[in-house]
Amino acid sequence: MQIEILNLDKHYGAYHALRDVTVQIPKGQFVALVGPSGCGKSTLLRSIAGLETITSGTLKIEGEIVNDLPPRKRDVAMVFQSYALYPHMSVAENMTYSLRIQGVSKADALKRAREVAEVTGLTDLLDRRPRDLSGGQRQRVAMGRAIVREPKAFLFDEPLSNLDAALRVHMRTEVRALHDRLGATSVYVTHDQIEAMTMADHVVVMRQGVIEQQGAPMELYDRPANKFVAGFIGSPAMNFVDGKIGEDGHSVTLALPNTPVIPLSRKAEAGRNVTVGMRPEHLSLDANDGQIEVAIRSVESTGSMAYYTTRTDPELMLVEQGRNRFRTGDTARLRIAPENVQLFDRKTDIAI
Amino acid sequence: MRPVKHTYLWLLAAFVFSVIYLFPLYWMYITAIKSPSEIFASPPTFWPNDPDLSIYPDVWEAREVPRYMWNSLVIAFGATGLTVVFGTGCAYVLARYRNIWVDVGLFLVLMLQVLPASVMVTPLFVGFNQIGLLGWPRTAVVLGVAAKSMPFFVVLVRAAFMTIPRELEEAGLVDGNSRIGAFIWIVLPMARNAILVCALLIFMQAFGEYIYSASIIQDQKLAPASVGLKTFLGPNSKDWNAIMAYSAMYVTPILAIFILLQRRIVAGLTAGALK
Q1: Facing residue for B168 by CB, picked from A70, A81, A84
Q2: Digit-coded pLDDT (tens) for A216-242
Q3: Which of A239, B78, B120, B133 is the most buried (most CB within 10 A)?
Q4: Does A233 fall in a domain?
Q5: What pLDDT, on the 0 to 100 scale, is given for residue B98?
């Protein structure tokens, strides 16, 4: 294991910022910490870096317990949201700064910086000051500064959130490609679940200082452990409808107009109150065939995809491939694919 | 009115006010080179009829200007050095930690600024006397002046530190610096301008300091130029051109520094405000 976080707790006075957090990160893995703001993901990242002290638990980097080591002895590199480039140094000086502190000679440090600049496309910018660079270029310098060090782990704190949308999507693939090329171990904090899903090998979903679920992206998508993860992962978000398990335990009745009954492939406790989760792409519209009739409230079409919402309570979101076949105000039959329906306990929100 | 006319009006106003403000300075320089009778001539002459520059070397010799200037420099450098070294550390701590005690500390610091030197000088004199510091009067003045200028320095430099994002220091820590290393190599260079400007202002203030020096320094050999100026003033003093020549020699170096660094000073003082 490259990084081991075992039963980590963090208190700020009376505030319990991280509760019993355990994450194991093997060498070469790209791990995303994702969750709404204030969930503790940044605190966890800063704890790994040594910028926050931990209250209890164990933190290991390459097998060595680093609980009480200052940041400079942990040999991790961090890319900050604001990039935190040193404004009084040129790009080359920024990139070689940590090497020079370690006592690497100026010439050697510069040679390494040149190599990294080649990879990150910064060669022409080495003599510039950070204030003369665009947002995207600053972001590259921040990455380059981390790469030069060849650290034990890369820590990213929402590094793409200050970029415009197009560049963000582009940098997603670039960061991941860089990670693979370097064989690095990366921990990546983001509030954007799409970033987490597309970039990471292992996604850790957090809420209020607790890990709600962790696993491979598709595992979280297909088998969310609870309603929070189900709603957080996936875009557009999963639809939730109240339901009740039928007497036979093999069907669920939905609290929608005309109370449609959906057959279940597995047995559930009869009469149990549940929340039924249905992903937008697992619902479809048809002119004649379907469980219930719905009116269409809105249609958004991107050309390749059509997004519908229905005039029901609660409102349902659907996604279909291709052009929209219905318009606002049309009525259609709604078909629910029973095999993809998720069930959550109504009280505890835990998946059944 | 059109904007162009406004600009000329403002320029004119600025010019008029500059003339009013700078006139005493001008008067000092020309009075020094007037003859004693011309000084009291009525109507006054705005340019001396017979400029006599020899007054400068004469006063320089007779009034022991070098010694007084040296003492002024010792006091100014001492007080500035002390203020910068301790004030920078203090300002940094007050900028980085936020709690009730920091607020109390800041309030006390500002209270110190309120107290005028003439009120402080008697307790200081008694205190210095008790610990035997009056045997080193210039050191005592340096301490007094440094204490007096500390609040000004701390408050302004603290504001400069607060504009430096914490993440920069954290990046420094992760990059391999110790806490002190990050302060010296990341934070200090970024606050350099503000520190320099504040130090310069304090230096100029300390260079002209009078109240503490006049009260604490008994030996004329150790007195600064500001106190030396007083030796001109007797019951029958009419040596106005000598006084003005002395003043000119005293003031000109400060003026020169200020004019040379004026652009920087203004930039340093407004840097925090514009961000």
Answers
A1: A84
A2: 999 999 999 999 999 999 989 999 999
A3: A239
A4: no
A5: 83
Yes or no: is domain B53-274 CATH 1.10.3720.10?
Answer: yes
The interface predicted TM-score of the complex, written ipTM, equals 0.84
Lookup: tokens for B39: 């000084």
> A327: which 2 tokens?
């318009």
Residue B273 has pLDDT above 50, yes or no: no
Omega before B51 cis (within 30°)? no
**Chain B residues with CB-CB distance to A under 8 A?**
165, 167-168, 170-179, 181, 186, 189-190
Distances (CA, A) of B32 to B58, B204, B208, B251: 12, 23, 20, 13
| pLDDT for residue B3 is more than 70 | no
Q: How far apart are CA A26 and CA B270, in angstroms?
A: 51
**Residues of chain A with a CB closer than 8 angstroms to some CB in chain B:** 49-51, 70-72, 76-78, 80-82, 84-88, 97-98, 101-102, 145, 149, 155
- The average pLDDT across B117-145 equals 89
Give the dihedral of Cα atoms B34, B40, B44, B47; nearest 10 deg: 0
Residues A197 and A314 in one domain: no
Q: Which of A226, A249, A271 is the last residue of a domain?
A: A226
Q: Where in chain B is the domain with CATH 1.10.3720.10?
A: 53-274
DSSP-derived letter for residue A303 is S
pTM over 0.90: no
Burial of B181-213, coded b for 16+ CB within 10 Å and e otherwise, reads ebbebbbbebbebbbebbbbbbbbbbbebebbb
From CA A302, how far away is CA A306, in angstroms rounded? 6
| Mean pLDDT of all residues belonging to chain A | 92
Question: Looking at beta carbons, which residues of chain A come within 8 Å of B171?
Answer: 78, 80, 84-86
Residue A352: inside a domain? no
CB contact under 8 A, B175 and A50: no
Q: What is the DSSP letter of A296?
A: E
CA neighbor of A155 nearest in space, from A189, A196, A201 = A189
Range of the structural domain that residue A65 is part of: 3-226
